[in-house]
Amino acid sequence: MSDESNKEPRKETGYLNAPDAIPMEDRPARPQTNILGPAWRLQFKVGDKKITLDLEDVMLIGRSADGEEQKSLSLDLGPHGAYQGGVSRQHAAITRHEGGLYVEDLGSTNGTRINGFQLTARRKYRLRDGDEVEFARLRTLIRFVRPSDDLSS
Fold it and tell me: 98: Cβ–Cβ under 8 A, 6 or more apart, which residues?
C-alpha cells in the first residue's frame, strides 16, 4: 500500500518565504503616536520573558552562536530559542528616525513579519506600539515604554 502524500519531498524551510505570503504595505505614523525621545525604551516580550532596551539609533537583532557572546547585537535572541526558530545571526535592524522606529530585515534566511505580513528584505517598515514581530519563527510583542512607565508591567 503506497501513500501518495509521501512522494513529495518535505520542505524544512520556507515557513516565512511562502509564495502566498502577503507583503507588508507602507505604514504611516498613527495620528496619536508620540515622538520617541531618548528616554523612551523598547520592550520585547518573547514567550513569558520581557527584555527592555534603551533606544539607540541602530539596534541589531539576531542570535549568537553556541558558546559565543555577540557584542554587536542589541538584542541576542539566542537564549530564547532563536536557533531552533530559524533566526539568523544578524537577522534585522531597528533604527530610529525623526522620532519613529523602523524595522528592516537584513536579508535573513527565514524572513521577518509584522503582524503576519511578510517584510521585503532591506526595506524599512515603521514599527508601532503593540506590533507582533516574527523574526523567522520566533514571535515577539513590541511595546514602547514611556520614561515614566513601570518596566515590570
Answer: 35
Residue 46 in any domain: the answer is: yes
pLDDT tens per residue across span 19-40:
566 676 676 666 555 678 778 9
Q: Characterize 18-37 residue by residue with b for buried, 16 or more Cβ atoms within 10 angstroms of its Cβ, and e for exposed.
A: eeebeebeeeeeeeeeeebe
Rounded Cα distance between 36 and 97, Å, is: 10
pLDDT tens column, 100-128: 999 999 999 999 999 999 999 999 999 99
DSSP assigned state of 5: G
* Helices H / strands E in the chain, number of each: 1, 11
Domain hosting 61: range is 34-145
137 belongs to a structural domain: yes
Give the chain's domain count.
Answer: 1
